[in-house]
Amino acid sequence: MRTQRLLSSLTWLISPVALLLLWAAIAGAGIFPRNLLIPPAQVWQTFEELSASGELLEHLLNSLSRLGLGFGIGSLCGLAFGVLMALSKNVEIYCSPLFHTLRQIPSIALIPMFVLLFGIDETFKIIIVAKTAFFPVALAASEGVKAIPRSYFEVADVYRLRWPTLVREIALPAAAPPIITGFRISLTRAWVVLVATELLAADSGLGQMIEMSRQMLRIDVVMVGIVVTGLIGFTLDFSFRQLEQRLFRWQTR
């Protein structure tokens, strides 16, 4: 029984290990030039060198600090707006059409305009991350609050609850599952958009490291940046999934 549990817990390793073996086999077969498809062993060696020099950590911390600040601003504003749009008919009537129009615009498409408005400094990157995080959270909060049974709000009317109390005691707890899912989706999207933004206009960060290495034909460094980007994205998503399972364990019973 214990062996079966151990094996089942390790099944998620099958696809990464298979991809790694396939990568090593193709690189070793010489199908592609060695300077284009770097073997995994050489990529690992480059990773160790970048880690030892502190260059990788510096770029990673710059990216994560932008992600944290931009995501914090965008997600909190999205939460407030989504709840307001669900609880106020006037806000929904006047703001909903514009909201649903703007959320269809890819964040990447706004990069040229944002660069012209804000330059390529930190403000630009934080704003693009905040924009990316805002809409999924706002939509999840709005739909989650709208799905709350009307009887909840009827009881609130009977007790004459004020708006802050209504939001804190009824709206947010009842709509928590979809809101947390919205946070998870917006965080991973924000991470992808941030790295893409750094590829186009930045002087530091993982995206900038990848782009500069591409220009210098350091494909090994490019591969390190790609792998680290994927691992960070996986870690962020996995962490939020674990949080969801812990907070809403009662839903699976």
Structural class: mainly alpha
User: Low-confidence parts, pLDDT < 50 over ≥5 residues?
Assistant: none
Global geometry: globular
Order of helices and strands: HHHHHHHHHHHH
Largest sheet: none
Tally of strands:
0
Please tell me how large the radius of gyration is. 22 Å
| N-C termini distance | 23 Å
Number of helices: 12
How would you describe this structure to a colleague?
This protein is an all-alpha fold and 253 residues long. The chain contains twelve helices and no strands. It has helices spanning 2-9, 14-29, 40-53, 55-87, 89-102, 111-118, 122-146, 150-158, 163-174, 176-200, 206-215, 219-247. It is globular, with a radius of gyration of 22 Å. The two termini are 23 Å apart. The mean pLDDT is 86.
Short recap of the structure:
This protein is mainly α. It is 80% helix and 0% strand.
List keywords for this structure.
mainly alpha, globular, 12 helices
What are the SSEs and their pairings?
Layout: H1 2-9, H2 14-29, H3 40-53, H4 55-87, H5 89-102, H6 111-118, H7 122-146, H8 150-158, H9 163-174, H10 176-200, H11 206-215, H12 219-247
